[in-house]
Specification:
Blueprint lengths: L27 E9 L2 E8 L9 E9 L2 H7 L16 E8 L11 E4 L9 H4 L24 E4 L2 H4 E3 L6 H4 L5 H11 L8 E5 L3 H10 L6 E6 L2 H9 L4 E4 L5 H8 L5 E6 L4 H10 E9 L11 H4 L5 E3 L8 H9 L9 E6 L3 H9 L1 H4 L3 E5 L1
Parallel strand pairs: 8-9, 8-11, 9-10, 11-12, 12-13, 14-15
Antiparallel strand pairs: 1-2, 3-4, 3-6, 3-15, 4-5, 5-7
This protein binds nicotinamide-adenine-dinucleotide and zinc ion (ZN) (2 copies).
One zinc ion (ZN) binds next to loops.
Length: 373
Amino acid sequence: MSTSLKTPPKPSTSAAIAKADDHGAPAKMKAMVYVSPGKIELRDCPKPVIKAPGDAIVRVTQTTICGTDLHILKGDVATATPGRILGHEGVGVIDSVGSAVTAFKKGDHVLISCVSACGTCEFCRKQMYSHCTTGGWILGNSIDGCQAEYVRTPHADMSLYHIPEGANEEALVMLSDILPTGFECGTLNGKVQPGSTVAIVGSGPIGLAALLTAQFYSPARIIMIDLDDNRLETATKFGATDILNSSDGKAVAAVMKLTGDAGCDTVIEAVGIPATFELCQKLVAAGGIIANIGVHGKPASLHLESLWDRNIAITTRLVDTATIPMLFKTVAAKKIDPSLLITHRFTLAEGEKAYKTFGNAAETKALKVIITT
Ligand SMILES: NC(=O)c1ccc[n+]([C@@H]2O[C@H](COP(=O)([O-])OP(=O)(O)OC[C@H]3O[C@@H](n4cnc5c(N)ncnc54)[C@H](O)[C@@H]3O)[C@@H](O)[C@H]2O)c1
Ligand SMILES: [Zn+2]
Ligand SMILES: [Zn+2]
């Protein structure tokens, strides 16, 4: 990806048309704009304005980069088109609200959910906010996102959360996406139980979020599997009982040895490639669950010839962020510390460097980077 700052700033085509300032010029802000596959740039863009009565404009104070932003940069996400301001995680302060917003006012400190929810459609009524018919994951995807000084958040009443005074706002950035994803798609869907055995394939930010939240339920064993020793070392600090580097191709034998040949009750896939989904199928115990979190771009084989009689279940899920209020409480009560995931800090002016650092995690050892605007 480009980290050159030499390209002259161009306005984003997708940002809302800003109001003119006192001199007749549109109000401007800095933002990270997806230019073309492989290329992200810090640009001057029009400051967003309220478009619908349920909107809020949030002055972003802290944001971060997600692995999914790297998928967009690779051109993997068709709905995120060039010109888009990226970012779907962050905290900030309300700058203005539309006429229908009742829960928030100018000056309120808020957490921005990565998923926007109207609260009234068929899917929202089931708390499947990710499938909201007029929302879902749209921020930094089909509409401009929060790696910017300001962001327009649709359905503000349902998609923003009040931040209690005195909270560590930097740590709460992890609640926009990472922690609810690990918890909802991994721990909850995988039905982690007291005394059970859990394997998590992938020790990136999402796998680590599953590791942190799985411990709410006191499983007897949590085995973390990855190719990267540094990430496995981090997993030990986060509470893994066992770590396995699977690059030698012996992970299945090692897990069977650890579990007395039973396999694991919950197997969480947190990578998103066919090889790891297939590995999960070899690790699951009879009666167990494979909870897939990974975003898959290619078909993966399902080995029914060995699984048909094993009484297993497989789940998939796009994060709904329905558990943000509950996760807020666990953080306030110090049951989990999401700030452990933060490894690097940048300013928005250093946004391109932040992408380079995050995109090169094997060398930089980056997990989550905080970008302060
Ligand atoms: N379902 C959802 O709603 C949702 C939300 C957010 C992210 N995701 C997805 O979750 C997945 C994980 O996200 P992340 O940010 O932690 O990604 P990441 O790329 O930072 O981490 C993936 C980890 O998997 C490891 N890995 C790669 N190949 C492996 C292999 N063959 N065997 C074992 N480990 C291997 C890597 O070393 C890395 O530590 C991604 O696919 C992401 O797109 C899903
Ligand atoms: Zn994300
Ligand atoms: Zn809805």
